[in-house]
Amino acid sequence: MNNAMRGRLGLMLFLEYFIWGGWHVTFGTWLGQSLHFSGSQIGVAAGATAVGAVVSPFLVGFVADRLVATERMLFVLHGVGALLLYLASLQSSFTGVYSLVLLYCFCFMPTLSLTNSLAFRQMSDPATQFGVIRVLGTLGWIVAGLIIGHLRIEATAIPMRIAAAASLAMAVYCLTLPHTPPVSAAKELSFSAVFPVEAARLLKDKSVAIFAAASFFICIPLQFYYAFTNLFLNQSGVVNAAGKMTGGQMSELFCMVLLPLFFRRLGVKYMLAVGMFAWVARYLMFAYGNSGPLMWMFWAGILLHGICYDFFFVTGQIYIDGKAPVYLRAAAQGFITFLTYGVGMFVGSWLSGAVVQHYALANGGYNWRAIWLIPAAFSAAVLLVFLLVFSEKSRAAEAEPGMDTSVPV
After folding, report:
1. Which DSSP string do the residues of 151-219 spell out, in sequence order?
2. Which of 286, 267, 17, 291 is nearest to 133 (CA)?
3. Helix axes 241-288, 126-151, angle to 10 degrees
4. Is residue 398 domain-resident?
5. How many Cβ atoms are within 10 Å of 213's Cβ, its own excluded?
């Protein structure tokens, strides 16, 4: 892969994550402070991405893989998405905002996998080439947050319009990307066409089943962070909260560099455990910090995002990749994504919204300390159970009689 192709793919991922970071981080703040939606409504609206993550494997795994060239699919999804996001920014009722954002997430969430898929198809060695390009995606998220924070528009609909404009630019840019035609023959749409039965059978390995369950449960408190952190920081008096929150993505880049070193020293179990412990610590920092003398605790909670994400999710992806046969690795990753960013965060959106609404105050604020202690306790419980029952040495389940374990050619 030459430098020109690296640049083209890097710009694609920069725009992809600029769009997401441009609207999603401050979405709850706009809903809460400008539209005065309830905590439950904010949680449900923020969970639209989770619904999109549940549906997107079917769109990606069937339509894009079997019917339509990837770059054309990206053009359509980002073009329609730009219109939906702009229309959502004009709404003031919960029904209007949620219905349009939900439709937008049906368009956007599949593009996360599609951009990765298109990039992989242009690489001779994705294992060594993708990481350098993916960094530009994180940079896109950071730049979006810095711009929005600097302009102090977090409580307005302007971030959504900026993201809509970026989505339109992305749609046009997708037409210039390398032609990436379908690789599979069209066949009937079904759950098994997206998630092969053999992928679910990986759960017969006790360690894989425990990891999958832990991944699902830890994503429930994760939605507290994604849906409410920016609103919390703004209500706590933090200036340029969106800009400061990009520290989480900066720490993610730093931790990614150190990941191989810690992986060799700690192993899978304790890498995953450190990631979950960072969840607990982050929520405690938010519960007991403030925007004055204890601002360092807010900063610590933000910077712990790198450990939360890299030590758990990236390590988990590596773990599943090693457990699954070569021909099932993509399906296995899709299944875990379905459990975590789909079902887990969907449950988390409802729970976080209910908790925040329960602790609403008469003055329009919230009892944030009580709120953050709940995901801290939830994360701690998941961590404790995981440490007690997970073992890297669990023997893989034996293949069932008649199950084909060979790699198809």
Report:
1. HT-TTSSHHHHHHHHHHHHHHHHHTTSPP----S------HHHHS-HHHHGGGGSHHHHHHHHHHHHHH
2. 17
3. 90
4. no
5. 17
| Contact assessment for residue 243 and residue 145, using Cβ atoms and an 8 Å cutoff | yes
pLDDT score, position 262: 84
Residue 293, classed as helix, strand or coil, is: coil
- Report pLDDT digits (tens) over 343-379: 999 999 999 999 999 999 988 899 999 999 999 999 9
Nearest CA to 109 out of 142, 141, 144, 81 is that of: 81
Q: Are residues 176 and 292 in the same domain?
A: no
Report d(CA 42, CA 131) in Å as an integer. 34
State whether 314 and 339 are in the same domain.
Answer: yes
Query: pLDDT confidence of 168, banded at 50, 70, 90?
Result: very high
Q: Closest Cα partner for 166 from 141, 191, 194?
A: 141
Owning domain of residue 226: 196-393
CB crowding 297-312: b at 16 or more within 10 Å, else e: bbebbbbbbbbbbbbb
Q: Are residues 165 and 207 in the same domain?
A: no
Q: Which two tokens stand for residue 100?
A: 């349009």
Domain shared by 94 and 131, yes or no? yes
Domain harbouring 227, CATH code: 1.20.1250.20
- Total count of domains within the chain: 2
Same domain as 379, residue 238: yes
DSSP, res 360 = B
**Comparing C-alpha atoms, which of 93, 72, 74 is closest to residue 82?**
74
Average pLDDT value for residue range 41-67: 78
- When mean pLDDT is compared across 55-59, 245-249, 321-325, the lowest value belongs to 55-59
What is the per-residue pLDDT for 320? 81
Secondary structure element (H or E) that encloses residue 343, with its range: none
pLDDT at 4 over 80: yes
Residue at token pair 């923020």: 46
φ, ψ at 123 (rounded to 5°): -105, 145
Tell me if 84 is assigned to some domain.
yes
Question: Cβ–Cβ contacts within 10 Å for residue 67, how many?
Answer: 13
Candidate from 55-69, 101-115, 145-159 with smallest mean pLDDT: 55-69
Asked whether the whole model's pTM tops 0.85, one would answer: no
What's the mean per-residue pLDDT of the chain?
Answer: 86
Helix segments in 289-367, DSSP class H: 295-303, 305-307, 315-323, 329-337, 345-358
